[in-house]
């Protein structure tokens, strides 16, 4: 199992991790398919999780989930998702300690000057999710 804090953009993007769903955005239609975004976290960091189709109805805040999937880095956003060959599954509820910072989706990544297949953090855009701001 990978910790969310250890996820970085790279040539290989397979991910096997466990997290809790903290918040979930509204469901939108992307062509013919449902899509929604969620904020998820483990004991090391938080990240945005993109759900498609039935996943949008399956996962709710408080769900403990396991993901065997991929991460995408496009338009300066790091997103977890199951992908076509992966699987996201609910494995419990309310049973994990978690951290909302750093949010790995709020880091700007750039290619390493010495190896373009590796990305390194350039800047922290925001310590918290700008999509799901923390409640004070």
Automatic annotation (TrEMBL):
A biological-process GO annotation: response to ionizing radiation
Molecular function in Gene Ontology: DNA binding
GO cellular component, one term: chromosome
Superkingdom: Eukaryota
Entry keyword set: DNA-binding
UniProt protein name: SOSS complex subunit B-like protein
Protein source organism: Nicotiana attenuata (Coyote tobacco)
Lineage of origin: Eukaryota, Viridiplantae, Streptophyta, Embryophyta, Tracheophyta
